[in-house]
Specification:
Alpha-Beta Plaits, homodimer, Dihydrodipicolinate Reductase, domain 2, six-stranded parallel beta sheet, 18 strands, Rossmann fold, 13 helices
Chain lengths: 430, 430
């Protein structure tokens, strides 16, 4: 690689503008560490005149990012737009085809098109790096690809979305409802002001799990149908009950090889309050890997925000400036295999079930009989009457049962007039 | 780098023999990931015929490791002997001078001679890698050098010695004395059967702190005089009292830049039981880094044993097989600066003091007057009489005071006839 490196940044949102500023500040430090002089020669964003945290040089501004490749000799492109398709995809493909290295924090793009893009990068002998796409500032991808290379990893899981973890923690601390806390998260910049849906419904964590699986198990990115649930149905009441039971609700992403098949999921879990994972609170992310010979290895850090994200983007930059061409997924596209999906129906968990029922004789036995019929045995049951409203709340913790079994068992409660609300189900983690 | 890579392993103790076996098993996997064919062409150890966990090929055995360089063309040497000087040092120097890459888990060697050896490696344009020297399987050095490159780290600390952490945890759980638990640790292979001193007196953790400082702050390895204390003076009684106070004793290594000066230390700390660090138990290690823009980043994993160590040695191997020549300390020897030492006398902590005294009038006031004279204010005091033996135990938790002040204050108690034992002092962690 030559000594003067031309850089383009496309997308000047929170992350892009922070990165722009960091690159300007840390030029000297980067030269000291790599011997390369970097220069930002082109930037692009939707709006040239938007008010930004740091001022930009308008001389190098492009309205159409694709024009950059025609006008400038770029060595490294930062794609900070964040779409899974559209201009993000076109831009990255164009760059790779022009033998330009690409760095991106775009998990949606990588989770969807990572395989093809890595093939393209390998073909053109350039780097495609995406450390910032998973767990913000935690250098988790590099750790899997390099620090734990040659380990046989069989499980990777954790708290992968800072927004939802913040909301769950904050609901517990303040006793405020989901909607109130969501508003607060949006004000603080933790949740998207316009559309927080991708964080809340588990999709964001899920894209990260797809990427983690591919890296951990050296497989193609899976397209398996999976259990993906967010936190939209978690009510303050569930958090309070969990608290009384010594439990805490966490949105976990889990990826595991079970009997040579791949199992991936994202859903809220009840975890013990005195476990490690039960104490990762606020916007923190945590990833736990289990493998041989390493045993258990755990990384924790801030999972969101322009600072940590920028830290990861710069680690990618240094890796490119220092080193050879690396396989985007640690191993050639052609050597990574697809892996069959574990049958989700056979996923087993203890369950937390919260029923709201009419306070009538026989309702409890209706529920317990139904559970018994499906051989779901009860570990704990707490019935709390609400005399005034002639209602009652029944919370049941079951022993382990399969997904399909619990689904079939509970289906009947959809249309029973004594069951006021289809039961809230939260899985217990192990 | 050529495609066929010749490897030599010197030292076939627990780590060396495990590595030997792993390399044989993982040849194919390594070729898949790097395109390089590795071959172990030479091994050496003190005793050819010692009983080992895996059998060795005697055809490639060398009694004198230095002979290897004369007989074989070696590309990568694993130094697994573990001395800070002597044959370890000569071997590594000879290899580097012969343009052979070196990988070692030898923290004593690196902490003492790392600067000179890195200069030698840079001069000869080969790699010197030592990921396994700190925190066993946790890829902490790579994380600092690569994953967090361009961050400004200002503090790194943690539990860096698995043996002592196991002993402290086990004493708390079993209520057994230090000596009993040490024996158990030796039986389990956690502590050296012959000489566990370097683990117990803090030296092992301290060597790791020296290496972490140099990498985190981009400085030369410091030779500053430091506070280094082990766990030899921790008694079961202290662990029990800590427990009652909601605290737990941990041997922490701490390195920090305070007002542009370097502060490094290893000593037992009282930490809150409900903090993260208070719950890293058994042989686990944990390293916490604080920096900008990353915030706090935390890594945890098994800190000892041939499996985790071998995981790190192999990550070094893959890094060499995949990449360019890298600076051993992430930056050229010539660009790393020395940094002045923080004055240890000014190190401030709350203190736990346990006095054993004669049960006589005036002894308590003797102690409290002395503390008052040195302006050490008392936060908590617990006096427990032992009428039968005409003794009493006085435990005092103080507010923050400096090292020099507490030293001067306590000195008087060495020769007081009413003080049966010079007070046990344990610092509280912030």
């Amino acid at each position: 690689m030559k000594n003067n490196i031309n850089i383009a940044i496309v997308g000047l949102g929170q992350v892009g503008i922070y990165l722009y500023n960091e690159l300007n500040i840390k030029k000297k430090d980067i030269e000291k560490k790599t011997g390369k002089k970097i220069k930002i020669v082109a930037i692009s964003a939707k709006n040239k005149d938007k008010k930004r945290k740091f001022s930009i040089s308008k001389k190098i501004f492009y309205k159409n990012p694709l024009q950059i490749f025609k006008k400038e000799k770029i060595d490294i492109l930062f794609e900070c737009i964040g779409l899974s398709d559209g201009i993000s995809k076109i831009l990255v493909e164009t760059a790779l085809n022009n033998k330009i290295n690409v760095i991106t924090p775009n998990k949606a793009l990588i989770a969807k098109h990572g395989d093809n893009l890595s093939k393209l990068a390998e073909k053109n002998k350039v780097n495609l790096e995406f450390e910032a796409s998973v767990a913000g500032g935690i250098p988790i991808l590099r750790t899997i690809k390099e620090g734990l290379a040659t380990n046989k990893i069989y499980k990777v899981y954790g708290i992968l979305n800072g927004t939802t973890n913040y909301i769950l923690s904050e609901m517990e601390i303040t006793n405020e409802t989901f909607n109130k806390v969501l508003l607060k998260a949006q004000k603080l910049g933790y949740a998207e002001p316009g559309n927080p849906k991708l964080d809340l419904n588990g999709f964001d964590a899920f894209a990260k799990i797809r990427i983690l699986s591919a890296l951990s198990f050296n497989t193609r990115i899976s397209k398996n149908k999976c259990i993906m649930e967010g936190i939209e149905n978690i009510e303050l009441e569930d958090i309070k009950i969990a608290n009384q039971l010594g439990l805490r609700i966490k949105l976990l992403g889990i990826s595991e090889i079970i009997k040579n098949k791949l199992f991936e999921t994202v859903h809220p879990c009840l975890v013990n309050k005195n476990t490690y994972i039960g104490n990762v609170n606020g916007v923190m992310n945590a990833v736990i890997m289990e493998g041989k010979p390493i045993g258990e290895c755990l990384l924790q850090g801030e999972g969101a925000g322009p600072g940590p994200t920028s830290s990861s983007l710069l680690s990618d930059l240094l890796s490119i400036l220092k080193g050879n061409i690396k396989y985007p997924f640690g191993m050639s596209y052609y050597k990574r295999k697809s892996v069959k999906a574990f049958n989700n129906n056979n996923y087993k968990n203890s369950l937390y079930l919260r029923f709201e029922v009419k306070d009538r004789q026989g309702v409890l036995s209706l529920i317990t009989n139904r559970l018994a019929k499906y051989k779901i045995s009860v570990k704990r049951i707490i019935q709390t009457p609400d005399k005034k409203n002639k209602k009652a709340r029944i919370v049941i913790i079951t022993h382990k049962t399969t997904e399909i079994n619990s689904k079939n068992c509970l289906s009947i409660f959809k249309k029973n007039k004594n069951i006021l609300k289809f039961p809230t189900l939260i899985r217990l983690y192990n």
